[in-house]
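Thread: quick sanity check before group meeting

JM: Hey all, I'm pulling together slides for Thursday and realized we never actually wrote out the predicted structure for the chain we discussed last week. Dropping the sequence here so it's in one place. If anyone has concerns about the input, flag it before I start.
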Amino acid sequence: MLFLHIFRLFCVFQDVLRNILDLNESVIQNEEFVCCVSGGKLFPGSVPLAHRYGGHQFGYWAGQLGDGRAHLLGEYTNRKGERWEVQLKGSGKTPYSRSGDGRAVIRSSVREFLCSEAMHFLGVPTSRALSLVVSEEPVWRDPFYNGSVIKERGAVVLRLAKSWFRISSLEILTRTGELDVLRTLLDFVIKEHFKSIATNDPDKYVVFFSRVLNETAHLIAHWMSVGFAHDFVPNTSDDEGRYSIGAQANVGLFNLQKLLEALKPLLTSDQLSQSLQILREYPQIYHQRFHELFKAKLGFLGNEEKDSYVIAFLLKVNISWIVFFSNCTIINSYSFFYFFYDIFNSQTVRS
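JM (edit): ok, ran it. Output follows.
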């Protein structure tokens, strides 16, 4: 892990401090606390480790990816009985850093710090962020991927999640032929995080895949309903718009296809056929949930066929969705018709 010789605690989210970690606000004045959230000192009882995973980038297998700049500090069970995995991001090199320096810069750290908490308070399931520590030590980056390296300031985020396992945690094991480890890890994930799945169910891996598929479809529909796009930032690394806001559902489907490929060695032929049928249901599950959320945003009641036409039209209209949904919260029934009339008559439709 990294010791930041020149650092300062830039921000702390009080809700996470009090309601997840059971800490009093006064702790942020403690120098030892600041050292712990910056990666300079371990919390009592912490045995840090790094997560090994590998997956796809821009649709192509990229091999082992990380974690190259994150350290899992341990698991904390709070007074409500909730279990949270505590992790530092940007805290230095790990065994999986490859040629990287294990650091994070302010711009990416602030983005995660703010977005995770914004998503939480918008009701979207997400990781949480406790603190942001800023360093004066230089970090060298090429932000526009054009060969122009600049000096930036480093940062460390302490973040929490119920689990940091991901699809690529399983992918790398299948790719490297570590099938015994794959089965052991998958059984652990099911036991710890999918407690409604019976561990002695011979079809538990199919049930697991079905659960992950449904939760993925609902999660993406939920974040799309608030105008969020995962893994899409205003830079030049995604020329084809693979991770653009209009492609989020398709990327989710791609990820689920790769999950099924990772599970394939553990499935019988019948179980694989069942799983492929479950995979084919993803578009319908996603669109149904997305339409439910969108209709709620618009205040549409019931289940009218015309509702779908209105939603389809609005998704083609060239408007600012931030402004649109903000206006939807303040218009009354008398201005509702005129609001839509203005949209339909003054906006262009995307081809």
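AS: nice. Strands lie at 7-12, 53-57, 60-66, 70-77, 83-89, 104-105, 128-141, 150-161. DSSP finds twelve helices and eight strands in the chain.
JM: adding both to the slides.
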